Amino acid sequence: MEKYLRVFKQFDSNGDGKICPVELQRCVGAIVGEMTEEEAADTVALLDSDGDGLLSLEDFVRVVEDAAEEEKASDLKAAFKMYEMEGSGCITPNSLRRMLSKLGERRSIDQCGDMIAPFDLNADGVLSFQEFQLMMHGAAP
Length: 141
Prior knowledge:
Helix content is 62%, strand content 0%. By secondary structure, it is mostly helical. The protein is elongated.
């Protein structure tokens, strides 16, 4: 929470414990480029949980954590696509074998099937994206 508070205080230039549209516009503009007053006001209105027209620390933390989760999900989808490789929407023993081979690991189709099996919840012999997510999050099958 301390790291969020430090960043929040950078945005909250007047120190009132809230981020107004002008403060948001100034900081976002300095970090990622131009943000209009209208965009800043719209953003604050969208993210403001108590309707006071300002972002609280809690609003700020929620936004930052949501963005981090979206980035993780995007990275996971990209990783899945690397292993999937067949356009089938799933990781097959053959596609897993090919990807492992590119990474320098030699495995047989049977070995790859054995690697998939513990996370293959519906026992169809392949990993769907949902099964891949569980595997990558370390969830026990």
